[in-house]
Amino acid sequence: MTELSIAEEPVPAPARGPSMQQAINLALEKVLEEDPTTLVFGEDVGRLGGVFRVTDGLQRRFGAERVFDTPLAESGIVGLAVGLAMNGWRPIPELQFDGFAYPALDQIVNQMARMHYRSRGTAPMPITLRLPSFGGIQAPEHHGESLEALFAHVPGLKVCAPSDPADAYRLLLQSVRADDPVIYMEPKARYWDRGPAELAEPTEPIGSSRVVRPGRHATLVAWGAMVHRCLQVADLAAEDGVDLEVVDLRWLKPIDADGLAASVARTRRAVVVHEAPLTAGLGAEVAALITERTFGDLLAPVQRVTGFDVPYPAGPLEPQYLPTLDRVLLAVQRTLEA
Amino acid sequence: MSAPRPADPHPETTGTASPALLRDFYRTMLTARLLDEEAVALQRQGVFPAYVSLRGQEAAQVGSAAALDRDHDFAFPTYREMAVALALDVDMVGYLASHRALWHGGLYDPMRSRFAPINAVVGGPVPHAVGWALGERLRGDPGCAIAYFGDGASSEGDVHEAMNFAAVFAAPVVFFCQNNQWALSVPNDRQVAGGSIAARAAGYGMPGVTVDGNDVVAVHAAVREALERARSGAGPSVIEARTYRLGPHSTSDDPGRYRDPDEERRWRERDPIARLRAVLERDGHADTAFFEEAEREAGEQAIRIRDGVSSAPPPGGEEMFTHVYREPTEALRAQQRAWREEAEL
């Protein structure tokens, strides 16, 4: 298998359409336009347009009542969203960085996720919590976390993570239009990727995965920025005659168990790749779902390639922490040789 | 089960209220007291796994709730606001169902009652009140929110975040703190630095007042004023009602381990119901016939609610699944089907 370092990663094809960060902006613009009860708020999302410029221009266009800055307090932001939702609004709060979701956990877990249940279905809770997520941008501590397993574990939440601009657009429209709270995890490392010029409406239901590259010999399962990494792996493996299928999970709750099973029933081998630490990560859930449904078809145990069970490391160590091309390729090799 | 008649009723009261309103206060406070006694008894009988008595806080709760505009305002309680629920005509069987452990949050309809689900994370609902209130302002609607919390919850970060947000947004919300002196076993001097929750309002640039929480008229006047201010667009305020939790924190608690019986005795002498009765008698607003009738009616209502909650059917097991999402996931549906198959075996 080819050995590659991060510096030698293949350069993505030149792009034409909006970047992911622009696609999310366009999706926000669309929902603000189509639904007068939508509100966008958070730290620095107004005049500045967000630290990643995802909300750029929205306050100018929709006014400071629909798109507004809040004080710097994540629990307060989510708590505000819960109260607004109870009063008939459709809030789209942003927490500036993944690691700052921790100060808001009580409001997310004990309040937002449970209010509909606690009220026996009477209190509406259609909140889309936007969370710039995952690593890969050499950011300071708390700016590169992968919280999907934590959120997916909480009853009442739905969780998604797009991997490219076109899907970021579709998933955001779906999340906002959904009547349940959704954690929308934006892969920071892919914010500037460009995609097709045309952005389209979602056509598949919440919880659908998609095959982003069909293949015959093994299935790679990933979400967020790791989808791109898996596509790189598939390109490299193809040079050695190994034909890998890449499944973009998209929805981390609910997970498309049938879609996973359909892919793995064909390829009979699976490797799940995520940035989060290994232990009790979402890869374990994915592996269990695949195994439950395709045990008889599997030719090898489901492999996991993940971050390590360590706090997210600082800049120079980041490329070694994140699943490298080599680590994924080695896992593919293991599953093929099993 | 009778109306309290302590030796030193402290009949003085601030502010004014019509005799009819005073008599209403009395009836509601007395009903709350008798219902509270029934609820404690239900716990002793094993019907409730636990109960949290509001004994001693009737004036703070009824006085504040009575100031609300029932068509427009919305109350966000924690878990000791039974007399608020009563004053707002919440379905009390549904309310107490929470204490019978039939459904966390209660079985009443919180949206129609304009009284949020019972919330056991103290301080947690306070930012919800701010969000709800901001929602009114954004829509140009006249409603105000009232956030109930205690001296213990005043230490929670959420309460501070909520106050700051409310002041920044000029949200029409009233932060109503019932300072009942004890956060479970921890007294005010180990809980509230500086000694005043109302004083914290100044730091957020809003008015903060302390009222005698056992004086229903004073409480009512303070909340009415704060609501008028909020409704006029002048923003939030803090009211600290100084009162006392005459009973234990919950039926599982033993205050004998941490507080002085003399202190309890001193506060019993300032019982809010006895004080109101003394005012009504002093000013000739109520006669013996009124008090007898009020006691009879309150007792009957308390027993009706007690019997209702004792015999209320628990929600079916399907409800364990049906309210998790508006749009349930296939994975949850599959779990529900599996549960149903097992349940039907």
UniProtKB/TrEMBL annotation, chain A:
It comes from the Bacteria. Pfam families: Transket_pyr, Transketolase_C. One of its GO terms (molecular function) is oxidoreductase activity. InterPro entries: THDP-binding, Transketo_C/PFOR_II, Transketolase-like_Pyr-bd, Transketolase_C. Signal peptide: none annotated. Residues 18-193 form the Transketolase-like pyrimidine-binding domain. This is Pyruvate dehydrogenase E1 component beta subunit.
Automatic annotation (TrEMBL), chain B:
Keywords: Oxidoreductase, Pyruvate, Thiamine pyrophosphate. Transmembrane segments: none annotated. It comes from the Bacteria. It catalyses: N(6)-[(R)-lipoyl]-L-lysyl-[protein] + 3-methyl-2-oxobutanoate + H(+) = N(6)-[(R)-S(8)-2-methylpropanoyldihydrolipoyl]-L-lysyl-[protein] + CO2. Pfam families: E1_dh. CDD domains: TPP_E1_PDC_ADC_BCADC. Its cofactor is thiamine diphosphate. SUPFAM superfamilies: Thiamin diphosphate-binding fold (THDP-binding). Residues 238-265, 296-320 are annotated as: Disordered. Residues 26-299 form the Dehydrogenase E1 component domain. The branched-chain alpha-keto dehydrogenase complex catalyzes the overall conversion of alpha-keto acids to acyl-CoA and CO(2). It contains multiple copies of three enzymatic components: branched-chain alpha-keto acid decarboxylase (E1), lipoamide acyltransferase (E2) and lipoamide dehydrogenase (E3). Belongs to the BCKDHA family. This is 2-oxoisovalerate dehydrogenase subunit alpha.
